[in-house]
Amino acid sequence: MQAAKRRKQPLRVxxxxxxxxxxxxxxxxxxxxxxxxxxxxTLHEAITACAQPFELLVLDAQLPDGSxxxxxxxxxxxxxxxxxxxxxxxxxxxxxxxxxxxxxxxxLQKPATVEDLTVTLEQxxxxxxxxxxxxxxxxxxxxxxxVLDRVRRAMAExxxxxxxxxxxxxxxxxxxxxQAVQQLIRDLExxxxxxxxxxxxxxxxxxxxxxxxxxxxxxxxxx
Length: 223
Description:
Elements: H1 2-6, E1 12-16, H2 20-33, E2 36-39, H3 43-49, E3 56-60, E4 62-63, E5 66-67, H4 68-76, E6 78-79, E7 83-88, H5 93-101, E8 106-109, H6 114-126, H7 132-138, H8 144-162, H9 167-174, H10 178-188, E9 197-198
Helix pairs in contact: 4-5, 8-9, 9-10
């Protein structure tokens, strides 16, 4: 409950699980924890629900009408994009791996309990996600300047969207000055973030560094 008490506004959570009973139990537990939680038992209903922004998506890898990967890919292009907590089983290893590539910050292994959920949620909110392995894996595969540009763009887009277009709020989220945010908007030709945006998840490919050509396949993005 410590993370919930520190928040000024309730955490907005969408629970999308294959088993309706478990989804409702998770939703009720999240409400008791202090979150504003909703349930969507199918991929179709979850896509509709994501018309409004959520801060956390508790997402099953396998859904009655499709794959959780489809939804993870969709919300990854939204701004603001929610954190994703993947819920997986032994039979969904491939989906679990793909969701991790797409940025899932944690995962629960079925059978999962309400206690597992709340403990994992506290961990997610109390420490920053680990991104270093993704950066290390990009060396020799993605141009250094491209990585910098993508990081700047993604973080600026997310901060502006989270702040509802307020540049001072975005600056506070990024730990930079308001003037630096204005410079990012000009340099990257960004939307001001006041309207919810969808972005292409595949940035333009660039040539790998000369020394890396022929040594390994090019990775088109940092996951």
